[in-house]
């Protein structure tokens, strides 16, 4: 079974690919993820910038303001609706890079 896992944190991606020391604060979580990946699956791990996955990023932010547990929604959050519309229209957002030059 093929799976794709996109991760917006390069650090998290490296931890998952390379593993962690037992005393690392995320070692248990990383171990569980690696255990799932090592099952009979073909998993492709990829880094994705936050801007490329705005819907998932917004949903993660919204999760801090709702009760724990399974949530069901009749319609997407107002902000999520505009993000999904942008995705459907093919709107691309450039990744802003700030270069500072001291003279």
Automatic annotation (TrEMBL):
Keyword annotations of the record: Stress response
Pfam families: RVT_3
Any GO molecular function: nucleic acid binding
UniProt key word Nucleotide-binding: no
All copies of domain RNase H type-1, residue ranges: 9-62
InterPro entries linked to this entry: RNaseH_domain (IPR002156)
Name of the protein this chain belongs to: Heat shock 70 kDa protein
